[in-house]
User: Fold this.
Amino acid sequence: GVCGGIAAYKVAGWLRELVRDGAEVTVVMTAAAQRFVGPLTFAALSGRRVECAMFDADSGRAMEHIRLAREAELVLVAPATANSLARFAHGLADDLLAAILLATRAPVVLCPSMNSDMFVHPATQDNLARLAAFGYHLVTPASGELACGEEGPGRLPEWDPVREQLLSLLSPQDLQGRTVLVSAGPTREALDPARFLSNRSSGRMGYALARAARRRGASVRLVSGPTALPDPPGVSVTRVASAAEMAAAILQQAEGADVVAMAAAVADFRPGQPETHKVKKGAAALTLALERTVDILGELGRRPSPRPLLLGFAAESRDHLAEGRRKLKAKKLDCIAVNDIGGSGTGFEVDSNQVTLIDADGEHPLPHTSKDETAARIWDHLILRLVRRIV
Assistant:
């Protein structure tokens, strides 16, 4: 649902992203919204008819608000203006969008957007409280420069946190009440003040696992090595650099966790004695003395029961299935996700992956798909193992 505010133009971009995600979107516009953005814009982006009128003789449908209310799996209203919030809060059904909100049984997400003084006004705050009591989901507006030139709360938020909320509402809540610990990204082992040993991990697979668990209701802790990725909404993030810092954070935060998913590419070796000053290039050769780092999963696997369900990752360039089976047994894991980093479109620095899950029941190959979809399929598998633990 699109209401009559200047932020209506931003919602066209949101619609494009929803369609890219595979959603089938019907846009309902208020009369005021059509003064800011034409229905043709939303029709072109959605590929569907835009609904604007409660009574449309040309459509041949007498109860359009009931049909749309029943078809919807979720109702998103953005921007939700002060006037629209007041109408929704008091049960008015004076246009198509308001009538749909009264009739729908689907989750409703409202994204308030207006001038700061209008937002903080007691009438608006009372209406928001009333709508929350109805069970509607309210997205907190962002703060910043508004269309009127003033600064303060009332801006339509960025798309990513809204997308996460929508996905959570549409996802099964089969991790509700569970605590999940995920590691992601590379580690950096200092050679000198200017250089370090690291690897090509981008952190995308671990972050996808954290987002997917959060969407399914889990309380998620993420321990991340150095990445350029933003913190996933609703996830507690601990930033580390070295393998030693990663080990300390994981071994501490694993207490009380139901699942530990070690997607981080942790260094196996580190310089025994990093140089105090930058090494100059005048020497003909340089010899590095390396020492082993802590085997984090091995340490967790040796802990007595009850311990978390342990998921490992193995990025291999050859014999990846055999190496996965070896690590599963050696580290006493519950499951390991193995991928061949020599394959096309898998492994590091790409948005897709193809893994095989190995556990006590055998090998479970997953299709080549996005890392977000891979993460969802991994959780499908792990949740079955969690259920078996309870039974």
User: Anything to note?
Assistant: The chain has two domains: 8-169, 172-270+287-390.
